[in-house]
Known about the structure:
Layout: H1 2-22, E1 27-33, E2 39-47, H2 48-65, E3 68-74, E4 78-86, H3 88-94, E5 100-105, E6 108-116, H4 122-132, E7 142-143, E8 162-166, H5 174-179, H6 210-215, H7 228-241, H8 246-256, H9 258-263, H10 265-282, H11 287-292, H12 303-314
Helix pairs in contact: 1-2, 7-8, 7-10, 8-10
Amino acid sequence: xxxxxxxxxxxxxxxxxxxxxxxxxxxxxxxxxxxxxxxxxxxxxxxxxxxxxxxxxxxxxxxxxxxxxxxxxxxxxxxxxxxxxxxxxxxxxxxxxxxxxxxxxxxxxxxxxxxxxxxxxxxxxxxxxxxxxxxxxxxxxxxxxxxxxxxxxxxxxxxxxxxxxxxxxxxxxxxxxxxxxxxxxxxxxxxxxxxxxxxxxxxxxxxxxxxxxxxxxxxxxxxxxxxxxxxxxxxxxxxxxxxxxxxxxxxxxxxxxxxxxxxxxxxxxxxxxxxxxxxxxxxxxxxxxxxxxxxxxxxxxxxxxxxxxxxxxxxx
Length: 316
């Protein structure tokens, strides 16, 4: 019986890798975590062929130790957009555009959409997640089909990740996603906060406190930990506002952020470029200078936000 379950898990993983290969995935990052989310293994850039070879043993070992097996796909000239935490109703809207759909826990679905780099972008990915009703903070990594979802809340009946649909070679265009009603309209830029004083305040060119950005980050969707993507973005915004270039900030983020270290330079540079664009949208006047000159009683600047920023500036 155990051998049969292992064979089923191996076949599901192979089917998942077949779907990935059909849309241009060449390498995958492999992460293995405990039930509590602690990382026990990480391999970056494993060739897809090698991943197929090692996965049966990885799955078997993970099942015995109650470990989670997670991969992050990469491919040249292709962007892979993860739509996570989708309900049964939401997944039906997404299926026509997805090359693979997974059920990661009972009635909780995840879809993957492949797009050409020329058509995709961070704004489109964000608008797609929002329009589809997915987790906007999705990490871009997924549990391997056939593996168990080892979380304490599921004990002792840990659900197995299963494939509910594959459409080999399926790629989507922006026009098609818009036609399907999956892309949320772009958000209007918020007006600059009103200044209270005419003078400006100089900010020393030093690095902000990454720890304080993590402490001040909102929780993830399941409220189990701080949202590191948000913390990284906030830290980059402050660093760039303090005078560092986007390139310098991305390089430093690789040292500060465990997520940047795991996801690589592409993630770091994308985050820094997004932060730089956000800063530019808020000109004239820097983010921190504008906040510092704003009315503390304004509903646009809650006390919790001011307190966190004060701590970050102080480097505490």
